[in-house]
Specification:
The chain is of the alpha+beta class and 439 residues long. Helices cover 32% and strands 24% of the residues. The chain has 14 helices and 20 strands.
Length: 439
């Protein structure tokens, strides 16, 4: 058996270390045909099959005690179509490699999340998103995809080919099959000007609608135990390119945002009473800055401090009220939270189980430093989010089940009916999917 991400033969661990799995065997297919054969062989042996990406999900969405598919040989760009402005890429390609390859070709995705370590299939299957007034999640930029289904056959899906599968499989949580290739809509590479500045919690919440409306991409971080936020506005720019200088970039993005932040979190974990003081210092560590660069240099940043995360999408009009409730809950409690709360937005989309399906959404993400007990904080936060009909991110910690999802997703039955058709024997099932989709 090959060694896994954790370095130990036979045990797979996710990035945050909160999920482990012991598959019967691991397969690293070098082609779609080999992947199809692995799925058929698993069926003969009565085993379930799951594909894993880089393990950046905090849920057990990819865990299996059956056959674990590693996609690292299914990487690279298959085709660039400059007439249609699309790029077709193998499912195991990390977003980082896709972004670099597109930039070399003078192309870019329209919007992206804030890290780019994940594989394209892992990121899209769980609904990874950035922030945007008009541009949506990475999955919403998909124009076509290729899927190996439970009987080992290869299905091509788009708006014109198998459209009902396309509607669901863009965010399929691994329940409908194994994605082998994705065709993304792309555009000529462009420049973004980022304006980062501190702002008080009261001002951000009072002016949220204005900040949202006036910027193509607006997001902010609130530091619990303080009234302080860091805001970020990204808007398209005619240039010139003016990236963050290497020294300032290292100081702010590596030394402060990763190095010092890691030490602060270690101190907070050892001495919880120090957390509010640390939070006040952390919230003032980064000063205002403005820079102009190509999209992936602006949207994404390195994240080396490990954490566990819960994120919910609430209707955008409910954001400010939800956030104020979260703040007053933290203020009233004995919780000690050393990680900022991240707030982003997305327009409504038409993907069956997208967290923004059919409604304009705002995302609130709560984090806890790896190794710190997070259950009490996440439970209290989740109570607030679900009171606002929140939809949890499929790849982040939550306790919801199929019964809850039938209430918050109008098209939930459409997805489960498709799953019954494509995977009647539950070849792609695991404990997580049994909970969130039913058996």
């Amino acid at each position: 058996m090959s060694t896994t991400a954790s370095g130990k033969s036979g045990t797979w661990r996710n990035w945050a270390g909160n999920v482990t799995a012991r598959p019967v065997r691991e397969v690293t297919p070098a082609s779609v045909d080999e992947l199809s054969a692995a799925v058929r062989k698993a069926a003969e042996d009565g085993l379930t099959v799951k594909a894993v990406g880089t393990g950046h999900s905090f849920t057990a969405a990819a865990a299996t005690d059956g056959v674990l598919i590693r996609p690292q040989l299914l990487t690279g760009i298959r085709k660039i179509d400059r007439m249609a402005m699309t790029v077709t890429v193998e499912a195991g390609t990390p977003l980082k490699r896709l972004n670099l390859a597109l930039a070399r070709e003078g192309l870019s995705l329209t919007n992206m999340g804030d890290i780019m370590e994940q594989t394209v299939s892992g990121a899209t299957s769980t609904g990874t998103h950035g922030t945007g007034r008009d541009s949506a999640s990475i999955a919403a930029q998909i124009k076509g995809l290729e899927l190996v289904t439970a009987d080992g056959s290869v299905l091509s899906c788009s708006e014109h080919e198998n459209p009902e599968v396309f509607a669901a499989a863009r965010i399929g949580i691994g329940a409908l099959g194994i994605v082998t290739a994705i065709t993304f809509s792309v555009e000529p590479v462009f420049l973004l000007t980022a304006r980062e500045e501190p702002m008080t919690f009261d001002r951000v919440t009072a002016d949220f609608e204005e900040l949202f409306t006036e910027n193509e991409h607006f997001e902010f971080y609130w530091f619990p135990h303080t009234g302080n936020c860091n805001t970020k506005r990204n808007n398209r720019s005619a240039g010139p390119e003016k990236p963050v200088g290497p020294i300032r970039g290292w100081i702010e993005d590596e030394f402060l945002s990763n190095g010092v932040f890691q030490v602060a979190n270690l101190l907070g974990r050892a001495v919880p009473a120090a957390v509010p003081s640390i939070a006040r210092l952390s919230s003032r560590a980064l000063s205002a800055r403005t820079y102009t660069d190509i999209p992936y240099e602006v949207f994404t940043s390195p994240r080396r401090v490990r954490f566990v995360e819960m994120e919910y999408a609430v209707p955008r009009e409910a954001l400010v009220e939800t956030l104020r409730e979260l703040k007053s809950m933290v203020d009233r409690s004995s919780l000690r939270v050393s990680f900022p709360v991240e707030v982003r937005t997305a327009p409504a989309d038409d993907i069956t189980l997208s967290t923004a399906s059919g409604r304009e959404s705002a995302y609130i993400a709560v984090h806890m430093f790896k190794g710190t007990p997070y259950q009490a904080y996440f439970t209290a936060a989740e109570r607030i989010f679900t009171a606002h009909e929140g939809r949890p991110h499929w790849g982040k910690v939550h306790t919801r089940d199929a019964e809850y999802f039938t209430k918050v997703y109008p098209r939930f039955g459409e997805f489960t009916a498709l799953r019954d058709r494509l995977d009647p024997d539950r070849r792609f099932a695991n404990d997580y999917l049994r909970r969130v989709l039913g058996s």
